[in-house]
Each structure stands twice: as structure tokens, then as C-alpha cells.
Backbone:
């Protein structure tokens, strides 16, 4: 066996990470001059890997030949040949490491940068600091965008709940989550409510002079001679329009049904809903009485004949239901798309009893699609009549105000005689068009 005895003086290796205070210099790896006396060309040679050699490091080969730094890494800029160099400011912790054995005072050579100086920045205005949200811009601002109005996938698509597999049971908290979701949707509908406006100044437009004379001539017609024809094709006689033109007269069923048909025709024409499933409908004055007295079976076919029966009812926007009870006319407005019911009474009734009757019809019409918790009675207000005879006028005017998006309280009892003449004139005109268009040339909507 070969035994080698080494002493501390004969064998000495540096510990990893620790070096002597005065390491020896290898003449083949680094110049022997101090840093402040090293020529510039020799400093450039240090970039090729030259540095301070660790103790005990020797070389047995000739020094490598000098290789000048590559200049093709940083080419000189020429017009139309090289793009400008992108200047990037990196932190000290992101810079690449230098040579492993370099002098402590050595600075890396500066990288040649040929990018043009940045242009002077303009001062930032205060409004430019705000977030520019495309959805909050004006509609004309979208025309400046290259692709027009932006679309949101959240608004375009509604996720559908996947059915639970047959071999799984619903979680314990599912009923509680569903109850809270229904309560949240109900609160949103109540807070949103119908948006209606109140006109500035007088809310009732005057009747044209030529129509005043035509209405007066209709009142002088002989008995049995039709003076007008409703949109449903029913003849109206002098005795019918007299219930509307005479002061303190009670409006009869023919006037109520004919004028509600005029309002529904205007809504369908204005919204382009002339074909297909109607989005607006008005039952006649006998619907509520039959529903109240006979239940759902008494009116089971009424919605089907109007093409809104069954689940189609949930796609309907507005349904007007005139209510005649105890010699008093009131109005129920059902909005199936919003699951809401409104009640307008010129004597201040709240309509809770009428709401229960309407829910009976909804329950029978929708079947399993009816969820009583989804439907709510909205608090609604109407102008008050100052006598016991104008309730029919208030019913029809409230229906017209709701159809036009106006507050039903925008007219008062002082407009009653003017409204009576307008109701007859608009029935004789077969609609809210021409001189009776509720929207004038200035875009103002009035009754």
C-alpha cells in the first residue's frame, strides 16, 4: 500500500466561498498592474473571462490569443436597415452576473445605445388620470373605435344551470341559496320598478278645433246610426259616446273596451309587434268579473284566444285588466316579464284583494311555471277624482299614461272634461296617430 504523508504546508486548498485576503495573481489571467493603471484595451480583454485566480491555480498551456469583442452584437445604425434599440431600465437584481473572478472596483463597460432621445412629455391633465371605461362613454364616442361598439360576453350569454345527475342528491344548503337568490331578484325588481316621467307644465294636449266640431256633430246623430267603429269592428252609437261626453256620466263598457284597444294598438305599432306573439294585451271589462265569480275555469280560454296562453304569458310585457266592482272602475296592470302587478285606483285603494284574484289566474295559466314568491304587488299611485262619476275617465287615462311612460299622477281632476273629449275623438280617429300622436315634432310626450 502506498502511503502519502501531507503536511499543512504541502497541501492547502481554499474553502468554498472563502478566499485569502491577498490572492496571488496569475499573469496569464489578469494584468499585474493596479486597477487605476490598467489600460483601457486590457480592461476590454477582461470581458472575455479574465479575473483573479484562486490560490493554487496554475496553467500549463500558452495564453489564449486575443479575441476582440464582437461588434456585430451592437451594429451601427443605418437608415432603413436596423430598428432603434429598445432601452430597458432593469433593477440591480435583474442585471446579468459579471465575471466570476473580477476585481472589486471594476465597472462593466457601458452598452452602446443608439436610440433617439425620447420626446418631451406633455403634462397629464387631471381628467386623463381617470379610468376610461368604454361602457360609460357617450354613444357617439363608440363611432371612433375601430370595431364599433364593444360587446360584453356577460351581457350576450346567460349561463344555464346544469341538471343534477340522477345518482346524486342536492346539497343541504341548496334550498337556502335558492331562497336568497329569489329574495335578491325580488328586491332588484322592486327597486328598479317602472321608469316613468312627469311632463313639464300642462300634461294634457288640447283637442284640435276641427275635432271639437266633429265630436259635437256625432252627439247630434240619430239613434241607431253608428258614429264610430272600434278597432275590433264594433259599432259605437250616440248613446255610447254620450256616456263619455256628458259631465258626471259613467262610462259604459263599450267606451272602456274601445279605448283600451286603441292604447294596445299604439303600443304594438310603436314597438313593431304587429305579428307573432303579442307583447301587449288588454282584456275586456268582463274578464275580471268572470275570474272573480267563477275562478280560473271561467276565463280558462281567454288568454289562449289572445295568443298569450300558457308559458307564452311570461314573454308578454303588459296586460291591462279593467276592474268594475261596486260601481267603481279601477285598473290592474300585469307585467309578466317583470313578475309585477300594479293597481291604480282614483279613490286610493291599494289593490291587495285584486292582487289575490289575479294570482289565481296566473297560477292556473302558468301551471308549474308559476312561483308565487316571484310575483309582487308594487306600490302605485293615481290622481284622485273629486266626484263619484269620473272613475272611468281616470281608468283610461291611467292606462294611457302607463303606455306612454308617464306618471299617472301627472293629470288632475281639473282635466276631466278635456280628457272626455279626447277619449271620444281618439276612438273616432281609430288610433293615436296623426293629430293625436302623443309625441309631437319636438319629441315631447303628452297625454
Residues:
Amino acid at each position: 500500500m502506498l502511503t502519502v504523508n501531507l503536511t499543512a504546508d504541502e497541501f492547502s486548498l481554499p474553502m468554498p466561498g472563502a478566499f485569502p485576503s491577498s490572492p496571488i495573481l496569475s499573469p496569464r489571467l489578469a494584468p499585474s498592474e493596479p486597477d487605476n493603471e490598467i489600460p483601457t484595451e486590457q480592461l476590454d480583454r477582461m470581458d472575455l473571462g479574465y479575473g483573479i485566480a484562486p490560490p493554487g491555480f496554475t496553467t500549463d498551456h500558452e495564453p489564449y490569443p486575443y479575441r476582440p469583442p464582437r461588434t456585430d452584437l451592437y451594429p451601427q445604425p443605418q437608415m432603413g436597415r436596423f430598428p432603434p434599440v429598445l432601452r430597458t431600465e432593469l433593477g440591480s437584481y435583474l442585471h446579468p452576473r459579471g465575471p466570476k473572478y473580477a476585481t472589486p472596483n471594476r465597472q462593466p463597460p457601458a452598452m452602446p445605445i443608439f436610440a433617439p432621445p425620447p420626446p418631451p412629455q406633455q403634462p397629464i391633465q387631471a381628467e386623463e388620470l381617470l379610468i376610461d371605461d368604454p361602457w360609460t362613454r357617450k354613444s357617439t364616442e363608440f363611432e371612433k373605435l375601430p370595431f364599433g361598439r364593444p360587446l360584453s360576453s356577460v351581457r350576450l350569454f346567460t349561463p344555464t344551470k346544469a341538471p343534477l345527475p340522477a345518482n346524486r342528491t342536492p346539497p343541504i344548503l341548496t334550498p337556502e341559496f335558492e331562497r336568497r337568490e329569489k329574495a335578491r331578484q325580488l328586491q332588484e325588481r322592486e327597486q328598479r320598478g317602472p321608469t316613468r316621467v312627469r311632463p313639464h307644465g300642462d300634461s294634457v294636449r288640447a283637442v284640435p278645433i276641427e275635432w271639437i266640431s266633429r265630436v259635437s256633430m256625432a252627439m247630434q246623430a240619430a239613434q241607431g246610426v253608428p258614429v264610430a267603429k272600434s278597432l275590433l269592428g264594433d259599432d259605437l252609437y250616440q248613446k255610447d259616446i254620450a256616456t263619455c261626453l256628458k259631465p258626471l256620466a259613467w262610462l259604459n263598457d263599450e267606451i272602456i273596451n274601445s279605448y283600451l284597444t286603441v292604447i294596445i294598438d299604439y303600443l304594438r305599432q310603436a314597438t313593431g309587434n304587429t305579428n307573432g306573439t303579442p307583447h301587449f294585451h288588454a282584456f275586456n271589462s268582463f274578464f275580471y268579473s268572470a275570474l272573480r265569480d267563477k275562478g280560473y275555469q271561467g276565463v280558462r280560454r281567454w288568454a289562449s284566444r289572445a295568443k298569450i296562453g300558457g308559458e307564452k304569458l311570461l314573454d308578454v310585457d303588459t296586460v291591462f285588466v279593467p276592474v268594475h266592482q261596486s260601481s267603481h272602475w279601477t285598473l290592474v296592470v300585469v307585467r309578466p316579464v317583470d313578475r309585477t302587478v300594479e293597481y291604480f285606483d282614483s279613490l286610493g285603494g291599494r289593490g291587495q284583494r285584486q292582487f289575490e284574484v289575479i294570482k289565481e289566474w296566473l297560477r292556473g295559466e302558468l301551471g308549474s311555471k308559476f312561483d308565487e314568491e316571484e310575483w309582487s304587488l308594487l306600490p302605485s299611485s293615481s290622481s284622485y277624482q273629486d266626484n263619484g262619476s269620473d272613475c272611468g275617465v281616470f281608468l283610461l287615462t291611467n292606462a294611457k299614461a302607463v303606455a306612454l311612460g308617464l306618471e299617472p299622477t301627472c293629470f288632475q281632476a281639473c282635466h276631466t272634461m278635456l280628457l272626455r273629449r279626447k277619449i271620444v275623438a281618439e276612438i273616432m280617429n281609430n288610433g293615436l296617430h296623426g293629430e293625436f300622436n302623443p309625441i309631437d315634432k319636438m319629441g315631447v310626450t303628452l297625454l
Remarks:
- The domain at 204-436 is CATH 3.40.395.10 (Adenoviral Proteinase; Chain).
- The chain has a mean pLDDT of 77.
- DSSP finds eleven helices and seven strands in the chain.
- The CA atoms of residues 357 and 395 lie 19 Å apart.
